[in-house]
Amino acid sequence: MTLNRGPIDPDVLYDQNIHRSETVWDDRNTPEINCRRREAVVQRTIPLHRNILPLLRASGFYGLARLGFIQLDWHLITALLERWRPETHTFHMPVGESIITLQDVEVFVGLPADGEPVIGQMHDD
User: Fold this and answer.
1) End-to-end alpha-carbon separation of the chain, Å?
2) Are 66 and 73 in contact, with CB atoms under 8 Å apart?
3) CA neighbor of 7 nearest in space, from 85, 62, 89, 119
4) Mean pLDDT in residue range 14-35
5) Cα(89)–Cα(105) distance, rounded to whole angstroms?
6) pLDDT band at 26 (very low <50, low <70, confident <90, very high)
7) What's the rounded Cα separation, in Å, for the pair 72 and 37?
8) Proportion of the chain in helix, strand, coil states, percent, rounded to 5
9) How many C-beta atoms lie closer than 10 Å to residue 97's C-beta?
10) I want to staple 13 with a disulfide (CB 3.0 to 4.6 A). Which of 7, 25, 65, 76 is the partner?
11) How far apart are CA 39 and CA 67, in angstroms?
């Protein structure tokens, strides 16, 4: 059985020659992906102001704002990065293309996607 490394039509995935999957497929030395965390620093350095707490609760963001450290799966993140195609804004999986919808984010993170948008200005008082 011969695997087709793709893409079949280079008009759609026109950046294949510079995509990370090209080096993986050719078994070349793939550059390491350096993942970084930022939210832990924000959690420790910026306390929630008492005036913002009711707004966070009303918008449904309070739980997310109080969320502590989350253990991330760096191998999963790397695998997803290797399958992300910026040309089509999709993940190219072995079974086909996949996207992440707003509803997916709503279910995974537990944030409401319905209702009024949360907008405003941030002041450093």
Assistant:
1) 65
2) no
3) 85
4) 72
5) 16
6) low
7) 9
8) 35, 5, 55
9) 12
10) 7
11) 10
